[in-house]
Design a protein that fits this description.
The complex is a heterodimer. By secondary structure, chain A is mainly β. Chain A contains no helices and 11 strands. By secondary structure, chain B is mainly β. Chain B contains no helices and 12 strands. In chain B, strands 2, 5, 6, 10, 11 and 12 form a 6-stranded mixed sheet that branches. A 4-stranded antiparallel sheet of chain B has the order 3-9-8-7, with no helix packed on it. The chains are: A mainly beta, B mainly beta. At the A-B interface, strand 4, strand 5, strand 9 and strand 10 of A face strand 6 and strand 11 of B.
């Protein structure tokens, strides 16, 4: 029973490029959460999705960031026109319907050069 | 706004010393509480969680935490730390709205360094 799978583990982008981060939740989990971790800081919530629905995007920057969780396939966090300040570790977590806890992926470390 | 405070940013201990990491939250309603550990370069691993019942919760690796509702606290403890406990520890809170779904609010984290 694979855990939460995130890829790529490391991603390097030049300023102005697009970054796409993928998250496949645990089998049986239909809820996905994205968090961003900056150096010396805790995890900051970005967005909470269920299949084909965005439930809470209160932590998403208003511009350049978007997220989706299609009926088929992984959840995608998309960052357009990346800037140096987007460099961070992005973690995905999933939970089953009805709760019970969260399982975190290994993260994607984005470096913008 | 809801917030989670971890007052100790960096704790340094010798092996076999006792550990207590503080965590306070600000929310007047029902909460679910979590402690996670993050080893360097790795993902968060759940140490323990509290949903309801006995406020003294035992987790993995010999850790335990006590929920004190009147103090809005959920402090993490371990009687005797080991070098392998060196990691960053995060307290997190989920607002209980009848389920454990929804976002987590994280504290800033406490870096624990244990000297052999």
């Amino acid at each position: 029973n694979a855990g939460v799978m995130q890829n790529p583990r490391h991603l390097v982008r030049r300023r102005g490029q697009e970054a796409r981060l993928r998250c496949s939740p645990m089998k049986g989990h239909s809820h996905v959460y994205w968090y961003r971790q900056l150096p010396e800081e805790g995890l900051k919530f970005m967005v909470y999705l269920q299949k084909e629905n965005i439930i809470d995007e209160s932590g998403m920057p208003k511009e350049r960031f978007s997220a989706e969780f299609p009926k088929e396939g992984p959840s995608i966090l998309r960052i357009q026109q990346v800037v140096r300040g987007d460099s961070a570790a992005y973690f995905c977590a999933s939970s089953p319907p009805g709760g019970g806890g969260y399982t975190f992926g290994s993260g994607t470390r984005l470096t913008v050069v | 706004a809801q917030s989670v405070s971890q007052h100790n940013h960096h704790v340094i201990l010798s092996e076999a010393a006792s550990l207590e990491l503080g965590c306070n939250y600000s929310y007047g309603g029902t909460v679910n509480l979590f402690w996670y550990v993050q080893y360097p370069g790795q993902h968060l691993q759940l140490l323990l969680k509290y949903f309801s019942g006995d406020p003294l919760v035992k987790g993995i690796k010999g850790f335990e935490a006590e929920f004190i509702k009147s103090k809005f606290s959920f402090n993490l403890r371990k009687p005797s730390v080991q070098w392998s406990d060196t990691a960053e520890y995060f307290c997190a809170v989920n607002l209980d709205r009848g389920s454990t779904l929804g976002r987590l609010y994280f504290g800033r984290g406490t870096q624990l360094t244990v000297w052999p």
